[in-house]
Amino acid sequence: MVLPVGTLVNAGAVVAGAGLGLLAGRVIDEKLRSAIFQALGLCTILIGLKMALVADNLMPVILSCVLGGLSGQALRLETRLAQAGDAVKIMLRSGNDRFTAGLVTASLLICVGAMGLVGALEEGLGGSPAILFSKSILDFFACLMLASVYGSGVAASAVPLLVYQGGLTLLAGFLAPALTEGIKDTLISTGGLLILGLGFNLSGFKPVSIENLLPALVFAVIFGAALGG
C-alpha cells in the first residue's frame, strides 16, 4: 500500500494557507477583500476554461452536466451540503457566519481538478508525488485568499481533500486500468466547467449552483466510457 505523501502535504498546505488567511483577514479592509475575490475569481475562471477545453468530444460533457444538474436538483444537494457544513460548524463550535460557504467553496476548488485526479493516481501507481506537491503550492495561496474572506471553514476543506485524493492514491491500482483516456478527458472537462462556474460565483456574477452539478462527475465517468472514445 502506497502512503499518500502528496495528499498529506497538500492537506497541510491547505491548513497553513487558511491559517495565514485568517490572520490576514483581520487587517484587510472590505475594498481590498473585494479586490482579492475578483482576482481569485478571474484566476479560477482561467483554470476552469483551460480544463473544460481538454476533451475533443464535447457530447459526453454536455450530457453529464445536463443530467448531473437535474439529478443534483432532485437530490437537493445544495441544501444537503449546506446542512452538512452547518453540522460541522456546530461540532467545531465556530461562530463564523461564513464557515459553511468557506468549507464548500474551498472543497470544490481544491478537490475538483485535473491535478488532484492525475497526481493522486500517479503516486498510487508508484510514481512521483511531484504533481501533488505543485498543487499544494497553488492550494496554499488559494486557501490563503479564501480564508481572508470566508474564515475558518476553508481550513476544514482539508478533510474532504484527504478523503478524496488519499482514497484515489490508495485505490489507484484498482481504478487506473478502468480509467480510459475518454473517461479522464470527460472528467477533467466536466470538472473544468464546475470550476468555471465557481469562478463566476467568486467574481460576483449571477450565482451558479455548483453543488447541484456535482453528480455531473459521476455521469462523466459513464458517458466518458461510452462516448469519449
What do these coordinates show?
This protein is an all-alpha fold. It has one domain (5-227). 77% of the residues lie in helices and 0% in strands. The chain contains twelve helices and no strands. Helix 1 runs parallel beside helix 7 (130-150), helix 4 (77-91) crosses helix 5 and helix 6 (114-124) crosses helix 8. The model has no long low-confidence stretch (mean pLDDT 87).
| Rg over C-alpha atoms, rounded to the nearest angstrom | 17 Å
Instruction: Give the helix tally.
Output: 12
Helix-strand pattern, N to C?
Answer: HHHHHHHHHHHH
Number of strands: 0
Number of domains: 1
Helix content: over 70%
Beta content comes to under 5%
Unreliably modeled segments? none
Mean pLDDT: 87
Main β sheet profile: none
Cα-to-Cα separation, first versus last residue: 31 Å
Structural class: mainly alpha
What is the 3D shape?
globular
Features:
single chain; globular; 229 residues; 12 helices
Question: What's the SSE blueprint?
Answer:
Layout: H1 5-25, H2 30-52, H3 59-75, H4 77-91, H5 99-111, H6 114-124, H7 130-150, H8 158-170, H9 172-175, H10 181-203, H11 210-213, H12 216-227
Helix pairs in contact: 1-7, 1-8, 2-7, 2-10, 3-10, 3-12, 4-5, 5-7, 6-7, 6-8, 10-12
Summarize the structure.
The protein has helices at residues 5-25, 30-52, 59-75, 77-91, 99-111, 114-124, 130-150, 158-170, 172-175, 181-203, 210-213, 216-227. With 229 residues, the chain is mainly α.
